[in-house]
Amino acid sequence: MKRIYKLLSLVTTIAMLTMLFAGCGGEEQKPGDERIRITIWTIATEGDAFHKSFTEAIAEYNRRQDKYVVVMETFENEQYKAKLPIQVKANQLPDIFYTWAGGFSQAFAESGKVLELDSYYEKYRDDLPESKLTARYNGKLYGIPYVTQISGVFYNRKAFAEAGIEKTPETFDEWMDCCEKLKNAGIIPIGNSAKSDSAWVVAMLYDALILKAVGPEKLQKVLTAQEGSYMERGFVQGTEAFCSIIENGYMDPDAGELTNDQALEKLFRGESAMYVMGSWTTSLFYDSKKCENPEDFDFFPVPVINSGVVRQSDYMGGASDTLMVNRYSENADAAADIAFQLAKLVSKYSYLSGAGTPAWKVDYNISEVKPLPVRIAQICSGATSFTLWFDTLMVAEDKEVYLKNLPRLFSGEITAKEFIGIMAETLQE
Questions:
Q1: Could you tell me the fold of the domain covering 149-317+389-428?
Q2: Helices (H) and strands (E) in the chain, counts
Q3: Tens digits of residue pLDDT in 276-300
Q4: In three state form, how does the secondary structure of 65-82 look?
Q5: Distance (Å, rounded) from C-alpha 92 to C-alpha 72?
Q6: I need a surface site. Which of 11, 44, 172, 267 has the fewest CB within 10 A?
Q7: Inter-axis angle of helices 199-214 and 233-247, nearest 10
Q8: Among 3.40.50.720, 3.40.190.10, 2.60.120.430, 3.40.1190.20, what is the CATH number of 10-146+319-363?
Q9: What share of the chain is helix, strand, coil (3-state, %, to 5)?
Q10: Whole-number Cα distances in Å, 85 to 10, 14, 57, 111
Q11: Rounded to 5 degrees, what angle do the CA atoms 386, 321, 132 make?
Q12: Can you tell me the distance from the alpha carbon of 230 to that of 359, in angstroms, rounded to the nearest whole number?
């Protein structure tokens, strides 16, 4: 590997672990329940799109078991990303834990503290395609996926009609024409959240633009420091396209003050016309407390910048959400099998609730699945490639540099040229 992770001081580690446990919450084992407790950590808090999926999956599993009971503890997304590596190093993991495939979990697999799952997978091979297993490291399986996610453009049909837009754009130039029409109609073209802790939201747009300029093969090789440079033409094109959206006034001018939830509320109210986000957001459109008219909304792929190297059907995303098992759990064998069972159930309930496209075989009634998740599932089935999001694909140190500097690019603190230089230097160290 091109760099070695630096160890945190004992004092810092203890302090951060204290903060981690102070922020957790979830289902508790009921008094008198003598079944063996299996603890799972997730980010499926009450406000998360997957909260219902996990709680229903765990409830179904627990109803039919007399030996084990699964108890979930939940954590806020960004806090969890920062704290999980500390827990791995300290060997203080639960039986099962949620994580992201790609570079984010590479160090976990290499640490020897996560259980290899190839032998357990054989039992579930017919229901979980090999192609969905993204959490492989050095040829071995360490993570179990449950949904396939992609990012794209959620848009308001009524806003498009009001601005005289008759079809969704397929090229970047067409997209910018749409934005100009929306702007002239007094509608914010693209909503966003760019607060200091929302870099991942800004990255939804930036990542997709780079993909649509560079192409999936080149992008993956550069981000994983295999070959190529961030200085190459496609990265310049994509970064300049990102900056042009901001400079032309197509982005919500209040984005820097909005959380993701607040920015989405403006989309639901019709104040903004588009929002680039992951497909897990679909469930929120059917939450009557958040969105009154879900039928007004649809989804299209981020348009292509360079058609010579990429297609509209190439997406940021994939089966990156994954469950891993603590190798040193007192019940590691049971936890591994339970993790597969839970992943299958979460896959089911995620699709039924609109939170995600199932990574597992569909063997249940889907007649009541809402139109938007069905449409996204159809899009996923026709995808020509999936590329994990930058902050998932890159190793931890590179991800930190990226998420630190992207908001600076968004705000104009640094130029496109400076940002490209920072990323090029980081990925070549």
A1: D-Maltodextrin-Binding Protein; domain 2 (3.40.190)
A2: 16, 15
A3: 999 999 988 998 899 999 999 999 9
A4: CCCEEEEEEECCHHHHHH
A5: 16
A6: 11
A7: 130
A8: 3.40.190.10
A9: 50, 15, 35
A10: 14, 13, 26, 10
A11: 50
A12: 32
Q: What angle do helix axes 396-411 and 416-428 make, rounded to 10 degrees? A: 170
Q: Which residue type is seen at 53?
A: S
* 318 vs 220: CA distance, rounded Å: 13
Q: What would the pLDDT profile of 48-85 be if each residue is shown by its tens digit?
A: 889 999 999 999 999 999 999 999 999 998 899 989 99
Radius of gyration of the chain, Cα coordinates, nearest whole angstrom: 21
Helix (H, G, I), strand (E, B) or coil at 186: coil
Q: Using DSSP bridges, classify how beta strands 272-278 and 68-74 pair: parallel, antiparallel or unpaired.
A: unpaired
Chain region(s) in the chain for CATH 3.40.190.10: 10-146+319-363, 149-317+389-428
Tokens 């100009």 label which residue? Answer: 180
Run of H or E residues at 173: helix 172-184
Single-letter amino acid, residue 54: F
Q: How far apart are CA 359 and CA 343, in angstroms?
A: 9
The predicted-structure confidence for 231-268, as pLDDT tens digits, reads as follows 999 999 999 999 999 999 999 999 999 999 999 999 99
